[in-house]
Amino acid sequence: MMHLAETLNFSGRKVVAAWASVPFPALRGCSLPDTLCAYQQDVPWKLLSSCREQEVSCCFAQSVVLRGLGRESHPSSLGKQPPSPFHACESTEQALQHYLHTMFPGAFSTSHVLEQPCSTLPPYPQFFSPLLTRQGFLLDKPPCSSSAAVESIPVLAALQSSPVLRTLLYSLYKDLQKLNTRRWASFFSAGVEQEDFQEALQELRTLSECYETGLEADESDDEADSD
After folding, report:
1. Exposed/middle/buried for residue 146 (C-beta within 10 Å: 0-12, 13-18, 19+)
2. Distance (Å, rounded) from C-alpha 198 to C-alpha 20?
């Protein structure tokens, strides 16, 4: 994880945010391009890190892994006009890569697609919707009979070097700045010098600034004025 985070970061950045879709919202019998076409306004995964999500999708670099889509989910439009650029791709991995370039233009993106799904057999908790099949794919409508336990699910996970981290890091800096270090004598008696603490605090603020874009920079100026 540490080496992957280092690979995704440059220009002074050191931290990545985690995203996931559990399960990945694929309809039973539909291909990955079919699913991606339904999410061209917003990505089908959610932020796991304690950051404030942004309305506009943006990141500097990312690594995305999708697992649980087998051959039946590969595009099959031979001899026909592809309904979308995603359907024109030769593989699910190419379709996912094209989707990432479309949703995050200019970002460095890597993607991998694995056929093996994530197992959800006991003792995995069964907190899934009745709209899921045993293989974790979505149904158009609830089944007539009580559905069996979900045995596996398709999952997407992503690590992003993203501007959403700017707010998290800056908030941490502000919280630490409010500490009255004179009340933490035992902390500094362990060998931490006051100057080292202040230097680390400034490095944290500098790190948060590495994740700024134009909008975050304007917001940072407003916050600096209020300091």
Report:
1. exposed
2. 35
